[in-house]
Fold this protein.
Amino acid sequence: MSGKRLLSKSNYLLQLFFILTLIFAAQSSDARSGGGGEAPFAGVDLSVSSPTVPAGGLLQMQVFMTEPKPILKGKQGLRAGSAAARSAVAEADAALAVASPLGVLRDAALFSSGGDVSGVAVTGANGTQFFFSSPLETFGTSTDTPVITLAYPVRANAAVGQSVPLTLDQSNSLWLDPNGKQYSVELNSGAMTVGGTLSIIDVVPGAGVLPPGTVISIKGVGFETDSKVDFGEAKVATQQYVSPNLIEVTLRDAMEIRGQRIRIDNSDNQRATYFPYQRTTSVGKSMHALVAASLPLFPQTALTLGYFRPTLRGTMFSGLALQNLNQVRVVATLQLYSKSGILLATKKLSLGKNTRISRDLVELFPAAKPATGTRLTVTSTLPIQMLGLLGDDSTGTLLPVAATATP
């Protein structure tokens, strides 16, 4: 009898073990899929953070991809505030501060793990439209860094409690996989609220591999003597409080600073987060309205020689953008050739440090008429960032075109 009881008890324990194993496996599966037993979303899932930013600070609208997906190319529309308010404030800056606590768009950036992503941000009455291309398909493969950021100053007279919707536009959203197939998209918009006292406005320098000991200036508002700086993957070697608007740090190891998550925490539990990139100044302004309304977003590779094939047909046109991140002035020489290889025109552009230029090719070569089939060669005295532009005035699109290494 005792043997039967022992066998029954053993069977009971064995059954209990299997039941617990099944429960544990189900819980683990739920945890991996985000809970609820649902499989991870197979498409592109974008989310905008919802920060609290003080008057006089900076809103960095940060768009994250919640699960990594390799992106070949696409577009995405974004808007901070209502379309009507953004357009009105752009026309009457100070008088309409009540309509929006935000100033006009300061700048923007795209981030990819391989540094290959390029793009164009075109701002109009309905917000900003990003067109992007990632030939190495590294755009979207990291969830630690936002794929897109936009920077808006928060007005000094913004009222505490004002809220601004941060909208991802579903009607202007297209994300293509490496095979050129369209991903399904889920968009999760956010909102900014005016409040608090802490904000990061800029980081200088904002790009490049910095040797250990390089002084990095973090600019902002609301810094305290005991503010704590966290530098993402980098280790902070020294931290010096200079003023409520400036903290200087050095890093222990060499580090590419562009795209590193920089976070500052104050003793009252306020926190500000910023992803740096090198800010540059535009040299003049294009006479072509679509080019003038755009911001070129360059790939991180710098070149001394690049080739482009212009397209001019109907409402379609080609442009060129150059950016100099060197600490000295450079001279870029532009040469336009005919289909048969005859030199049609030469143009020299001088770019100071941390400057950029964007122009329709017709502006650069008004007499030569750079038609479809011509070839453009760009050479520079030092490596600079180059980007071709392919625009269509009928649709308001302006696409990035990478330089090629051969004619």
